[in-house]
Amino acid sequence: MGTQVLDRDVITRYPNNSDRSQFEDIVNLLTENDAAYAEINIPGKDSIILPKELAELLVEAARRLRQGKAVFLSSSETQLTTQQAADLLGISRPTFVKLLEENEIPFVKVGRHRRVYLKDVETYSAKQHNNFMLAMSDLSANTNPLDTVDNPLIRG
């Protein structure tokens, strides 16, 4: 599991307390009226309209910096090898290949190698997380705390 999925050149920005109100203004301006784009005006140059994806990234970065969180920006190929995808999910490559063979995650063949799309891996990961959260919610809803009082494994 030594393959690195994300590029090594990660850009990190840390929050500056004096800029938090400016981040608040950016978030408010870009999210009011469901604005689908942002326009950048550079003195002496034509204004540029940012694509929706970039505007959304800007909003999320500003929102997190406003909350006092550091922001990391990295990139990844949209198509991954089975090893890269397994690393991303934190599982072994053979286990990941088994998921592919069970049609849990779509894949394409490039020659004799399988490739998966990052979006499909993220979708699978989110689905697994949601299933886990539902199972934990069901478990806690169906558990009587008094049932554990006499359990010798739980007594401290």
UniProtKB/TrEMBL annotation:
GO terms for molecular function: DNA binding. It comes from the Bacteria. Pfam families: HTH_17. Residues 80-127 form the Helix-turn-helix domain. This is Helix-turn-helix domain-containing protein. It comes from Galliscardovia ingluviei. The lineage of its organism: Bacteria, Bacillati, Actinomycetota, Actinomycetes, Bifidobacteriales.
